[in-house]
Amino acid sequence: MRWILLQIISVTTINLKSLPQRLWLSLSTVAAVALVVMVLLSFLAMANGFRRTIEGSGANDIAVILRGGSQSDINSVVTRDQVRLIDDAAGVARDAEGKPLVSAELYLTVDGHKRATGAKANLPLRGIGAEGAALRHGVVVTEGRMFNPGSNEIVVGKGVVAQYSGFDLGQTVTIAGTKWTVVGIFSAGGTVFESEIWADAPVVQSLFKRVNVFQTIRAWLTSPAALADLKAYAVKDPRIKELDIKSEAAYFADQASPTSDLIQKLSWPLAIGALAGALNTMYSSVAARATEIATLRAIGFGGFPAFVGTLIESLTLAAIGGAIGALAAFLFFDGFTASTLGASFTQVVFTFRLTPSLIAQGVALALAVGLAGGLFPALRAARMPIVAAVYG
User: Fold this and answer.
1) How far apart are CA 312 and CA 343, in angstroms?
2) Residues facing 102 on adjacent strands
3) pLDDT(180) > 50
4) Which residues are CB-neighbours of 244 under 8 A, at least 6 positions away?
5) What's the pLDDT band for 23 if we cut at 50, 70, 90?
6) Do 343 and 259 touch, CB atoms closer than 8 A?
7) H or E stretch at 350
8) What is the DSSP letter of 147?
9) What share of residues in the chain are helix, strand, coil (percent, to 5)?
């Protein structure tokens, strides 16, 4: 056993020291594996960033109330009378003056143009009530001020400013034929709210002729457990019984799943395409060394040590490629800001997030490529008759 181990160490050392003599073949193997890992990790970072942006927007002590069966704000309708009933509902928190912390809101799509390309895109315009900003944790006006009620003023998330032209502080934009002034820019901890434009709900209602209806209601709960009290209150009243009530955290988790799942599903076909090339390169690299393996056997090394040493070489090249691919993905994609369509057919600005667990997945894939690409040709070369390997 000790003799076999010494042979494995000797073969592995010889193989690794001879890599500079096969520089271009080794580099092509490393580059192929690195490409596979970088492609996969870029998509996984995209899906992770999108999911974090959406799911991170939700709180357990905020209730989101929509028409029953609605999947998002844009296809929901609630009436003013239903808003009043929620104002009086059990479990809804109140301010020092006893006023319910409730915001009835409108959610519409308006046109915007991307800074980089000038392409037109749908942006979310949200009409919010007086408590609208307070009902979103972590919202801070970083430039300018909040809009004045009853005015044609808007505040925009910093994600909108970064990705779309015409929304800088002090600029005037035209929405539905009406001019609006950008009076403030806000941050929201990297959440989906940074992709929105906010205006006074009554003004938006008047402009879009939706005077007596809203699309969603947000209510601050006395505690996360009070969500059950609010649901029980609604069930007892036929006027709001059909409303769908869930925590903001649950609502945004539902919103995140379809798009993040789609991104991940798209990533694997692309990665598999690159994987086929990497496996072919790795296979060719090892298969081309059948003569060298046979020479090692001819001078006294056993077939098993030759096989293991060659496989370790293959895994080493794959590990180097995986590390380079992960580093490239981190340098080029981690923190990269982009936008894509969300569940409400509007653009969501998000940041790619590459985590240690995702990097571990990429390196594991690289090692799998090294194993699959090196196993069979190394086994074949180690078992091939020496004469056939040398002269065949």
Assistant:
1) 47
2) 219
3) yes
4) 65, 66, 67, 68, 69, 70
5) low
6) yes
7) strand 347-351
8) P
9) 55, 20, 25
Q: Hey, what amino acid is at 385?
A: P
Q: How far apart are CA 289 and CA 381, in angstroms?
A: 8
107-161 pLDDT per residue, tens = 988 888 888 788 888 888 999 988 888 898 889 999 999 999 999 999 999 989 9
Residue of 336, 392, 373, 93 lying closest to 226 (CA atoms): 93
Question: Which residue is it, tokens 């592995």?
Answer: 12
What are the φ and ψ backbone dihedral angles of 200, each rounded to 5 degrees? -70, 125
Going from the C-alpha of 12 to that of each of 212, 217, 318, the distances in angstroms are 78, 67, 15
Q: What is the DSSP letter of 152?
A: S
Answer for the pair 156, 125: CB distance below 8 angstroms, yes or no: no
In one-letter notation, the amino acid at residue 2 is: R
Mean pLDDT score, 175-191: 90
Please give the Cα distance from 244 to 65 (Å, whole number). 6
DSSP 8-class letter at 117: T
For 190, left (φ over 0), alpha (ψ -120 to 50), or beta? left
Eight-class DSSP state of 249: H
219: β partners: 63, 102
Amino acid letter at 338?
A
Q: Which residues have CB under 8 Å from 37's CB, separation 6+?
A: 321, 322, 324, 325, 326, 329, 362, 363, 365, 366
In angstroms, the Cα distances linking 158 to 167, 253, 351 are: 9, 22, 13
Token pair in block for residue 27: 């580099």
342, 194 contact by CB (below 8 A): no
The number of residues in the chain equals: 392
CA 334/CA 305 separation, integer angstroms: 41
Q: What is the largest CA-CA distance in the chain?
A: 95
Q: For residues 193 and 186, what is the distance between their CA atoms, to the nearest angstrom?
A: 9
